[in-house]
Amino acid sequence: MHTRACKIVATLGPASDSPQRLIMLVEAGVNCFRLNFSHGAKEDHKRRYDAVREAEARLGWPIGIIADLQGPKIRVGAFEAGSIRLKYGDVLKLEASDRPGDDRVVRLPHPKIVDALEAGDVLKFDDGKLQMTVVEKSAAGLSARVDFGGELKSQKGLNVPTRRIPISALTEKDRADLACALDLGVDYVALSFVQSADDVREAAMLIDGRAAILSKIEKPAALDDLPEIVDLSDAIMVARGDLGVELAPEQVPIAQRKIIRAARAAGKPVIIATHMLESMIDAPTPTRAEASDVATAVYQGADAVMLSAESAVGRHPQTVVAIMDRIIRAVEDDPDHWAGLKRDTARPEPTTADAISLSAREVADVLNCAAVVAYTSTGSTALRIARERPQCGVVSMTPHAATARRLCLAWGVRSIVTDDATSMEDMTAKAEQTVRALGVAKDDDRVVITAGVPFGRPGKTNMIRILRLESA
Questions:
Q1: Residue 329's closest CA among 295, 372, 378, 278?
Q2: What CA–CA distance (Å, rounded) separates 279 from 363?
Q3: How many CB atoms lie within 10 A of CB 471?
Q4: 274: annotated active-site residue
Q5: Is 405 a catalytic residue?
Q6: Distance separating alpha carbons of residues 435 and 393, to the nearest angstrom
Q7: Rg from Cα positions in the chain
Q8: Does the active-site annotation cover 107?
């Protein structure tokens, strides 16, 4: 099982979804796989899900699976000629209609968007390559001026960074995909284009505890509601693709840092995604800037970094995972990295769980322990300890496979599925056997154990014990 603290998420696709290739990717460093529901049929997702579970059984350790819903991707309508040429300074009409547009009218097949727009709002097309600004709203309709011109093709994406669009984060397609994902048994459901905490609440009602919720922050509006979104979510993703379109480029790194800190303070796993090693879709090595980007995410304390097209359709999926693994390990070998993590750790809350978690990290650091062993049912204990970023890492022991799989996203946590301890002696014996089997501890090493007494009751972590391994 991998010894890195920061985890790797890889997107599955034609380049990576064969059973043998999956095993190679896991051995190279993948902890969790992403099923991208923007592409592929239900049969494709089921085949990939089954292949991951087969790899999990063959390797003998848990692997997480994320179902990433497409969300309400907003697009312009069709054009009579397939595209139009936007010229700087031209003023065009914006209309809500399914009819094809022309060089004077851009059709927006979403009436709510047209209703929501006001003079001064900015519209970005085709991942920000083209831009218009609304200059007039009247009974006759909307008019917008071209700021950045070029060719605008039918069905290209549209972003409105200046306005919260009054549409649900779950389309009809998303609801059907969500039902499919829950039937499969995925560990996380990723919500795209979350704008407010209400989007998370809506999804939570539909999911009803059958999977954890991973909220993707890719809209500036979500930053205004970030604390509550984090509170309602089980994990967070910094989705820098659309976020980079809707925010000024210089604001994206600042937003990334802000989101990481908010998630870390709440003890929720946070993933950094999009354009991490994108040049490796074709090239066998990354650019220096890409390597620095991955390293920055690790230095900032992210729980995981994600590969998208690099692993889904790229030419070198195993190589890109191995290189990402090397970058993470290089950062984690830097003493300054650990000093920074401690400096950025949030203050503990006045709860028994946080008192135990902070104490476990302090004891592990003072005694140079080999590991912190956390007995957990729901995973909350392991997450609270991981929040403290102990340098020795966390070994999570849980009776539930679902809990072990969800912890695959958590910083520094290695999960083992085992029966609950029945006594103090059983607790220490299981812990010793596990850390020896994982190779994280040997004779004369010490480990910190946290558990709840009486045993087998979730949410009752209330004890800490130091175990010294003795030679047989």
A1: 295
A2: 43
A3: 6
A4: yes
A5: no
A6: 11
A7: 24
A8: no
347-468 CATH: 3.40.1380.20
How large is the greatest C-alpha to C-alpha distance in the chain, in angstroms? 87
Q: Tokens for 193?
A: 């284009």
Catalytic pick among 124, 216, 268, 387? 216
Of the chain, the end-to-end C-alpha distance in Å amounts to: 25
Instruction: Note if 46 is an active site residue.
Output: no
Q: What is the dihedral of CA 325, 331, 337, 342, to 10 degrees?
A: 0
Cα–Cα distance for residue pair 129/105, rounded to 1 Å: 19
What CATH class is the domain 83-159? mainly beta
Question: DSSP of 268-285, one letter per residue?
Answer: --EEEESSSSGGGGT-SS
Instruction: Please pick, among 4, 7, 11, 34, the residue that the annotation labels catalytic.
Output: 34
The pLDDT tens digits for 358-397 are: 999 999 999 999 999 999 999 999 999 999 999 999 999 9
Kindly report the pTM of this predicted structure: 0.93
For the stretch 262-318, pLDDT in tens is 999 999 999 999 999 999 999 999 999 999 999 999 999 999 999 999 999 999 999
CATH of 7-71+169-333 among 3.30.70.100, 3.40.30.10, 3.20.20.60, 3.40.50.720: 3.20.20.60
Look at the block and give the residue holding tokens 């997450």: 383
If you ran DSSP here, which 8-state letter would residue 286 be given?
Answer: -
> In the numeric block, which tokens belong to residue 83?
């595209």
Tell me the C-alpha distance between 312 and 165, whole Å.
31
